[in-house]
Structures are given as structure tokens and as C-alpha cells.
């Protein structure tokens, strides 16, 4: 699995010969010139996960990419966007994409809760080789190989991030969703996740606009 991180929640995953770009949002940079994508996947409608000013040029540069999102984003954008509900399965010539979760984490009880699709990549035999939860702490029912774990968010305490990482217990995890905090504070969040993870989970950091084999 080859993974590139473009900051915040924007991640490019190359798996089973397919390229999937997740959450090209307003706090992310460097994804603009990507071509040859097989799918663009958006977990939910917030601008830090789908930048309204850059999504259309990205789609135009990748005319063959399937456009997958939570149901509300698909309804809002229309056109070729496909709603991926929890439990739905999409097959991209050998790469299985399964929807999970369904709802965004609660930001405040007085604010409406929107849709949020958790994207799970893999095969029929191993459906959770990679998991992008978007803005949720939904735990898959099958063992996870690589988890993109939210590190900081207006809807989450750091203790919840730690507990989520422990509950999923992936082979490997790397932090996302930290574009909302200053770079000087990254270590505060990353060190807690690293120190308090389960012993059999490896924790690594992919800096923005860097990539790695995981």
C-alpha cells in the first residue's frame, strides 16, 4: 500500500492497482495536479473535506474517476456523484470499497448532525486494509491494517482519539485532521497517540505532501 498525505484529511491511497483520493479539502495542498485517479472519495460535506473552489478542476483532470461520497454530499453536488451508504459495496476491478458509519460526530447538541461515510478499502476476504473514518469514531467490525486516525477536531477530546485508536487496534496508524492546530502543537497530539496506543499497533507520521509505503 502506497499512501501520500496532502495535509489535514486529504490522503491518496494506492492499493490493488487503484488510486483513491480522500477528502480534498480547504486545509489541504498539493493534490491539485493529480491525474490518473480511479476514484475521489469524500466522507462529508464540510469545506475542510471537499473544497468547493478546487473540486471541479480536480474532477476535470480525472474524467475517469468515480465520485463517491456520503449521501448528503452526493445530493448537494448532484451529477456523477454516487452516494455510499453504510453497508454499500463498490468494486473497482478488484478493489473493494465498503461504506461504514453514517453520521458525523456531534460537534454540539444544538447543531444538526450531518452524514459521514467511513471508507473501507480492501478485498472481499480482507475488507479493511485501509480505513478513513472522516469525522467520526466508528469502529469497523473486521481487523484493520492501516487506519487514518483523526488527531484533533472541534468535536473530539484527545482522550477520545486515544480510545478510538485503541478500539480499532490497527496494525499501523497515522494521524490526519490536524490542519486546525498550529504546527508547533502537532507533537502534543501525536505524542499522546504514540505513547498510549496498544503495543501491537505501530504509529507513524506522514507529514503533509509526503508519502510512504505502509
UniProtKB/TrEMBL annotation:
It comes from Nocardia fusca. Residues 7-177 form the Metallo-beta-lactamase domain. It comes from the Bacteria. InterPro entries: Metallo-B-lactamas, RibonucZ/Hydroxyglut_hydro, UPF0173_UPF0282_UlaG_hydrolase. Pfam families: Lactamase_B_3. Coiled coil: none annotated. This is MBL fold metallo-hydrolase.
Amino acid at each position: 500500500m502506497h499512501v501520500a498525505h496532502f495535509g489535514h484529511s486529504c490522503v491518496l491511497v494506492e492499493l490493488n492497482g487503484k488510486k483513491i483520493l480522500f477528502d480534498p479539502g480547504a486545509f489541504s495542498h498539493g493534490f491539485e495536479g493529480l491525474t490518473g485517479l480511479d476514484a475521489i472519495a469524500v466522507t462529508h460535506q464540510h469545506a475542510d473535506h471537499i473544497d468547493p473552489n478546487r473540486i471541479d478542476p480536480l474532477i476535470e483532470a480525472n474524467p475517469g474517476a468515480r465520485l463517491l461520497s456520503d449521501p448528503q454530499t452526493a445530493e448537494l453536488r448532484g451529477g456523477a456523484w454516487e452516494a455510499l451508504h453504510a453497508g454499500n459495496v463498490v468494486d473497482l476491478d478488484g478493489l473493494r470499497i465498503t461504506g461504514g458509519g453514517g453520521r458525523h460526530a456531534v460537534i454540539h447538541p444544538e447543531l444538526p448532525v450531518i452524514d459521514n461515510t467511513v471508507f473501507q478499502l480492501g478485498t472481499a476476504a480482507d475488507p479493511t486494509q485501509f480505513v478513513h473514518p472522516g469525522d467520526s469514531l466508528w469502529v469497523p467490525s473486521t481487523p484493520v491494517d492501516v487506519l487514518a486516525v483523526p488527531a484533533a477536531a472541534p468535536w473530539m477530546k484527545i482522550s477520545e482519539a486515544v480510545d478510538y485508536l485503541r478500539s480499532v487496534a490497527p496494525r499501523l496508524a497515522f494521524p490526519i485532521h490536524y490542519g486546525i492546530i498550529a504546527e508547533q502543537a502537532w507533537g502534543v497530539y501525536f505524542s499522546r497517540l504514540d505513547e498510549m496506543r496498544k503495543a501491537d499497533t505501530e504509529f507513524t507520521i506522514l507529514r503533509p505532501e509526503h508519502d510512504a509505503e505502509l
